[in-house]
Amino acid sequence: MFNSKDPIISLWPQLIGAVNAGALATADSIGDGDKENSDHLAVEAINAVMDGIEMDGQIVIGEGERDNAPMLYIGQKVGTGSGPKVSIAIDPLEGTGPCAKGQRGAICILACGDADGIIGAADGYMDKLAVGPDLVDVVNPTATIAENIEAMAQRLDRETRGITVAVLDRMRNQSTIDQIRKTRARVTLITDGDLSEVINAMVAGHDTDAVMGSGGSPEGHIGACVAKCMGGSHWGRYLHPDELAEFPKDRGKLSDNYCDRMLEMGIEFNRYYTTNELAPSQRIVVAIAHVTHGVLRGEAVKRFSHGHVIHWSAMGCEDGIRYLIPPSRIVTIDHPKKAFRL
Predict the structure, then answer these.
(1) In this structure, how many other beta carbons lie within 10 angstroms of the beta carbon of residue 324?
(2) Does 312 share its domain with 169?
């Protein structure tokens, strides 16, 4: 458990309760093919719990703008209004597709930091480079992909073919994928949501060495919080709509006032933000509930006629001190004469 008396770090059990509620709510929807319903169930469950947490919180990264999201929207106040003032970045269901298909990598996740300790941004796209602690000082987002992969190979004492890079499988990332393959490095194509692989990249010995390419910017902010808690790095550059001109499906997902909103929030399009710029807070807690298998080797949520099993993880950092609780299990038995067979 976290050995800290800090009021923000001490919120971790309540934050775990919130994401656990989301995971349990989605349990019956795993594999049903309806990702929108799975996301809706997670949002409702987490929102209900968040309002009871002793904090004065505001969501800076959430389900979108207020007009497009009834709950957990950007700017929403959460908590009882008493307790520490905090900023919240949340993805109620990272991996809606894998959840709907019964595949690996779906989680409920949120990050909590000081007020103004996690920067906010409108929902868009971010070009990312994420690596774990062993590689933070050998890669650079402004270097070429080939240069970064060669640097990773040298640091890890491997040939480039021994490096694995995860990339979201989208047409806008095809150039990145081609450049990685030219180095003979391995490419893991992510079907839905890159945050799960960002988390895995932070763990020494995991198959994923780095995450590259563009993905959702909300996941980038949470990824930076994860990297800060685990000693890794997560750089991000927000994509301007003009960069998506050749990809009308992606361009069409941006709001009409996207550039204006980013300007209001003080966001620049022409540079990479560092981990500490995306998540400047010196105190951060990240709470994760595992919906399906895969992330940090956590197991899927299970519901039985007489109870349920949820696997959860937590991480945190406080002025350079890092905390990690690997996947742990909560077993709830609703009927005292019943027992689980796992």
Answers:
(1) 17
(2) no
Neighbours of 12 (CB within 10 A): 21
Residues 182 and 316 placed together within one structural domain of the fold = no
Q: Measure the CA–CA gap between 128 and 211, rounded to whole angstroms.
A: 7
* Torsion (CA) 233, 297, 305, 51 in degrees, nearest 10: -10
User: What does the alpha-carbon distance between residue 290 and residue 117 come to, in Å, rounded to a whole number?
Assistant: 25
Q: Identify whether 51 is part of a domain.
A: yes
**CATH number of the domain where residue 214 is located:** 3.40.190.90
Does the pTM of the predicted model rise above 0.90? yes
Closest CA to 160 of 129, 198, 187: 187
**Domain containing residue 292: CATH number:** 3.30.540.10
Residue 2 in domain: no
Strand partners, 213: 128
**Positive/negative CA dihedral, 29, 14, 330, 315:** positive
Residue range of the domain that includes 139: 125-278
Burial 135-168 (b: 16+ CB within 10 A, else e): beebbebeeebeebbbbbbebeeeebeebbbbbb
pLDDT confidence of residue 339: 43
Q: How many domains does the chain have?
A: 2
Q: Give the tens place of pLDDT for each residue, 118-137.
A: 999 999 999 999 999 999 99
Q: Which of 201, 254, 249, 216 is nearest to 65 (CA)?
A: 254
pLDDT tens string 62-98:
987 766 668 999 999 999 999 999 999 999 999 999 9
Task: Report the DSSP pairing between strands 125-131 and 107-114.
Answer: unpaired
Please check whether residue 198 lies inside any domain of the structure: yes
Measured CA to CA in angstroms, residue 334 lies from 38, 43, 62, 147, 310 at distances of 24, 24, 33, 56, 14
